[in-house]
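Structure first, sequence second, as always.
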């Protein structure tokens, strides 16, 4: 109910703002259109007056204006005092004008609004004023049609805009709600992960301070505290890496390198843990596979997959690493471990999510999230195939180097 109320308030606020903006746009367009029509009409009056004035100047005694009877167009000739010398046949009254050059608008009975242009001119020894006028009925009809169009289009535009915004606001609020829930879960999980090593550190320090201990007890406590501090440091480093990736600031320093060399180094670093569990690391690496990547981040990427493969596999099994180059570069890590269920598979890249909660991982539940961030920074992708009880295979796809 609260979410719906917020959505309606946001939609209403947007509709008010959009309606005001649309009204301003339509009003501005109307005023500009009106100004253009009137300017064109005034220009037309001047163009009509020019040839008539030219004829009068050629023969001032001729009464051509008295014979004019054009529909919705009116003409007069005045002397400097304002007396009417000639008037078009369709005028049954003098035009109520101010005797000064320029443009004027008057209203005539049974005719309506008339736009006038007053032009001084010389005809022989005479100084006269020529008045050309035209009914603005066509302008009024055009503006009325535009107003009717706006009265229909404005509500329709507002309704359509509101519908589109309502749809988008639902999606936006849904995403915001999902992000907030994810953030809350992330903070909760992070606090839980950090609380465990902190509790161990606090317990060990309290035991050490409770009474005098032997050298062996101090050494054992120091080893425990060192292990927990390293675990805490890894979690903090992982969170920092992910925060940089979220902000789009995970800076990699790509350089041309042969990927098989990075994989060999990573296998060497993972060998002690694999040997301890009697797990064989088998390699099938194509030679001279060139990529443009950051060796430090790629080494961290491969160690994440090797670490998970070894820790989630029983003793006496093997981990197979394959490197091939086709249209792109593919690195596969296949183990014979516990596997991942179909329900958990879509969530394995979520932070602090473990498909096997009973098994601790070195990454503290952040390893695959970091792996995905590293691969995305290298413009690649990760695919996973897994079956419970039969193991998993993670495949990293990277662009091939030039």
């Amino acid at each position: 109910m609260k979410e719906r109320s917020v959505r309606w308030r946001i939609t209403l606020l947007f509709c008010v703002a959009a309606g005001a903006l649309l009204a301003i746009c339509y009003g501005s367009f109307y005023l500009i259109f009106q100004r253009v029509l009137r300017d064109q009409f005034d220009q037309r009056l001047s163009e009509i007056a020019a040839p008539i004035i030219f004829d009068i100047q050629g023969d001032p005694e001729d009464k051509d204006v008295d014979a004019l009877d054009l529909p919705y167009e009116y003409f007069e000739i005045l002397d400097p005092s304002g007396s009417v010398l000639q008037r078009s046949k369709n005028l049954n009254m003098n035009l109520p004008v101010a005797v000064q050059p320029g443009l004027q608008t008057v209203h005539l009975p049974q005719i309506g609004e008339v736009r006038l242009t007053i032009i001084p001119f010389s005809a022989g020894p005479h100084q006269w004023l020529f008045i050309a006028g035209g009914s603005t009925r066509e302008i009024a009809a055009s503006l009325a049609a535009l107003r009717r169009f706006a009265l229909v289009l404005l509500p329709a535009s507002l309704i359509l805009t509101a519908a589109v915004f309502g749809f988008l606001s639902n999606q936006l609020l849904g995403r915001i709600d999902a992000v907030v829930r994810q953030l809350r879960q992330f903070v909760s999980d992070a606090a839980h992960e950090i609380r465990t090593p902190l509790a161990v550190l606090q317990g060990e320090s309290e035991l050490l301070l409770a009474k005098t201990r032997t050298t062996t007890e101090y050494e054992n406590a120091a080893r425990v505290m060192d292990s927990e501090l390293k675990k805490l440091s890894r979690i903090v480093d992982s969170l920092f890496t992910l925060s940089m990736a979220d902000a789009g600031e995970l800076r990699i320093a790509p350089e041309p390198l042969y990927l098989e060399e990075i994989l060999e180094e990573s296998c060497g670093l993972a060998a002690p843990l694999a040997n301890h569990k009697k797990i064989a690391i088998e390699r099938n690496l194509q030679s001279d596979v060139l990529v443009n990547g950051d060796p430090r981040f790629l080494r961290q990427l491969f160690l994440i997959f090797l670490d998970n493969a070894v820790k989630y596999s029983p003793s006496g099994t093997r981990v197979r690493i394959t490197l091939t180059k086709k249209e792109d570069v593919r690195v596969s890590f296949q183990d014979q471990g516990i596997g991942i269920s179909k329900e958990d598979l879509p969530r394995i890249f979520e932070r602090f999510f473990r498909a096997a909660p009973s098994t601790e991982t070195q990454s503290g539940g952040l390893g695959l999230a970091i792996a995905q961030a590293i691969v995305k920074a290298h413009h690649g992708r990760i695919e996973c195939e897994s079956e419970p009880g039969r193991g998993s295979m993670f495949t990293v796809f990277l662009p091939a180097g030039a």
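Margin note: Helices lie at 2-58, 64-67, 137-210, 215-246, 259-276, 295-311, 367-377.
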